[in-house]
Sequence to fold (1139 residues):
Amino acid sequence: MKIGYYPGCSLSSTGREYNESLQVIAPLLGVTLQEIEDWNCCGASSAHATNRQLSLALAARNLALAETQAIPEVLAPCAACYNRLASARHALAKDTRAFEKTREVLERPEFSNSVRVKTSVEWLRDLAPVIQKKAEETASRSATSPSVKGLKVACYYGCLLVRPPEVTQWPTQWDDPEDPSSMETVVRATGAEPVRWNRRLDCCGAGFSLSRLDSVARLGREILQEAKKAGAQALVVACPLCHVNLDFRQQAIARKAGGEFDLPVFYITELVGLALGASQAQLGLNRHYVRTDSVLERSP
Amino acid sequence: MTSTGFEPKIAAFVCNWCTYTGADLAGTSRIQMATNVRIIRLPCTGRIDPLFIIKAFERGADGVIVSGCHPADCHYTAGNYHARRRFTLFNDFIEFLGIDSRRITFSWVSASEGQKWADIVNDTTARVRELGPFSGYRDLVRSGLTGGQDAGT
Amino acid sequence: MSRIGVFVCHCGENIARTVDCAAVAKRLAELPGVAHSVDYKYMCSDPGQALIKQAIAEKGLTGVVVAACSPHMHEKTFRRAVSGAGMNPHFCEMANIREHCSWIHEDRVKATDKATQLASFIVEKVKRNRPLQPIHIPIERRALVIGGGIAGIQASLDIADGNREVVLVEKEPSIGGHMSQLSETFPTLDCSQCILTPRMVETYQHERIRLHTYSEVESVEGYIGNFTVRIRKKSRSIDEEKCNGCGACIQACPNRKSPNEFDTGLGKRTSVYVPFPQAVPNIPVIDRASCLFFRGRAKGAKKDVCKKCEAACGKGAIAFDREDRIIEEKVGAIIIATGYQLYSIGKEQANSAFKGYGEYGYGTIPDVIDGLQFERLASASGPTAGKILRPSDGKEPKRIIFLQCIGSRDPAKGIQFCSKICCMYVAKHTMLYKHKVHGGQATVFFMDIRAAGKGYDEFSRRAIEEDGARYIRGRVSKLERDGEAIKVYGYDTLNGAPVVMDADMVVLATAMVPQTGISTLAQKLSVSYDRYGFINEAHPKLRPVETNTAGIFVAGACQAPRDIPDSVSMASAAAAKVLGLFSNEKLEREPSVAVVNRELCTGCFHCQRVCPYGAIDRFEVKDRKDTLLKTVAEVNKGICQGCGTCQATCPSKSVELEGFTDEQVFAEINALEWTGQGNSGEGGRR
Fold:
């Protein structure tokens, strides 16, 4: 099986372990990642906050490249990149004038806006039966490697994975924007246990990590506190910025807004990797700020 | 408007209970639409003979709309089903008869769908305007049916 | 030789603003066959109609075309006018140059051209009209009322008191509808059942009302004055003749755990049950899905299980083997009064166009309830004997938060309309709550307050001023479980700040939507309905209780959300229409029916196969010696509804629909060529 791959800027910098873990699990699941040649930055928050045409063109160029490289479907693990690509796809499909202008700007008159974009959550959810089978095989093979079986995990979707519904749930609805369950399906397939908790779709402060740390602290504390209250031993995310805010900033949150958490934050791909028998080092878990080994040894 | 300023003439055969009333509603709601459509009222789409459509093209129509009640909602229970079946067969003949099938619109418009009627009027008008005038039948009739004539578009 | 009179109406400014009426009249005067062509300000007025009558007399007109509004508006008016001048009304038709022209266009030149052409179609048609005589049909002076809620009850009583028989069909085991579930009604805080039950009893005892409860309409055939209705009387598994309502069976039933539908699932009932103590009729029903005997039988048990009710019954009224029956009733008019149900915030939706509220937990958070559930809690005969208690743990909530507009006015959930009654009943709920829980605090999140009835605004102010309800203008974005409480995330738009509150109970004012299965019923009756399922009225302003199907009327919340006084008014209005219909000696039907030409008919009977009403019979043509010459089709004038499907199907064109003959329709089509600007066109013009 093949799928197009758009890593985006963060996966080679702050989200390195997201990329590393993804590269490890893809072959284990029988999937080849075909990285888009010459991909460019999607524009994330800076482009769409400044100039609409720029934000459309930056994202659309990647879709156009995928088209010429005969890639029908692209996996964009970073939630912000995914949202930018999906927004551009939607906007160009609905606004014919913007579509014409964008083709002009990109100098790609043959671009037909036919490429589908997927989040890592949807991709993994569709592979859940494979993950479950392989996880069970791995568990029966070795009882000593770090295991996630029975680990109580809070699935944190953040804002950009399933919203806005007109953009992310188009052309087909892959999950419920008010009550999503894809991440929980993946977590269950790995053998871990998703907990029921209240902050799954709440904002973590996103880009304000740099400009308004007090907001991030306030929002992050709500999330971490609620996860702990629900009995979670760890959080699972699918976005590098969520990871930064909840892992890198966890100490700052505790200091600024109060509270004691000690909650490791896994990327969904890391959790799957652990279930499939990969080592912590292979998956980049040593790069986390909140140590993960204690919680992994704790679980049965 | 095309560069030639051609404005199509479109005949609409509609059923009294649903589409005619829906068109009334569009009127009461003052929904503006293209001026090209001439409605001919019939009790039910089941009354529509395919010959009406042919005659309309012969007498100057460049496009035709046939519109009735949604399936299951026919005022006479089943008239629209008969119309639907009749026109499924008729559709196969249209191109053979020399009429571009894009000149004919079949639709279901209920009594509460004023906006939908306006959309159908506007869409059909724009589409037929693009296709240009349909003079094939008129020419045929006027020429006294001499053979060897091109049936036109 | 045709002498058609054309009258172009200005309709004040409605037509004249866009269409040059004088020009239209002038152009139409050029049409061959037009003997008189004028324009006038208001054709439907008395002087306008006088113009027509005068012209008929002075110019010997053979037909009249009024180019004005839609024939749906005034065809009857003008036909009556020409009748008064001695002309057969079917020689008068209207060209729609208002709804179909002046109101939808701005370009004066184009609109005038179009109006001229539309009128020319009708002129050509009328030249070929024939004098038709009305068809008289008998009337069955009995009415069918579908739905036994307050609207159905009121309509039934009004018709029965008007000395006509009524057949009342109700699908639940008891009449009363949702009004019987309410505790108190606004704005008087009358006890709902106290004002309703006398009406229910009166309905049951009325000698002219035939009550069929636990029954549904199976099929409807026929037409106004002559409907044949088949009703499915579902089996109660009880012999209604023998049962005396003593309740011994209910006492004996071992199953006490089935959710009680009347108590909206908050209470429990037995398998053999009466929905509520004041049920009318007071005859129990056995719920076969939960009854141990029936379940045993379904599983193939060799011995009969339980049957304790049968043993306890002193009258031998338990009848396990009784099955559904179909009965037939003949009626002349039908009133649809099926009422409403409440929209649910769950994932599963009755109407595929609706979405649930994931942000409120899709109905999985306990102690988040809807308005009818609150009514059952507040009701003295309810599952908690009138105490407001949390369904989860039975504790008394000290803080209740009410959310208005749940589903209603929310395009994201698929419902655009306002449900009209919620602002009022939420105010009522806050008052009931305060009266019962003195230390409690009620908070209401609202968008607007719609309290437009008599005494309504005063009532809603009482909730705030006398009973201390706190009203916050803003919506709630999320409800979450927080331990035992519910966390409510809202916004106060007047203060401009988010609001987070804790509640012990949340009551949602959910949208009022039509009953499930309403579209199936509407299709059986051939009435139209909108995208929500609300039955369509014939005209929203002037014909609110009629449908477009002659003889079928509508009353109550099945047509649109409304409160009790409006439902009662509408029911009485529908009853008046029915009594008015029945007061005619005979019914005059439009003569637009099909007629077979026996000379041409070959007897293929394709028409019989396609006629939706079975109006085509076989007729034997015989000679004087009684030898059969041929069998041809014949249309039953009483049954034919005038759809014309037969004519379009007939291969030999031997059947014609009066009023829409091929000659008439082709004349309209031929008129497409005439532009009214010196172009005389072709074709046989008379």
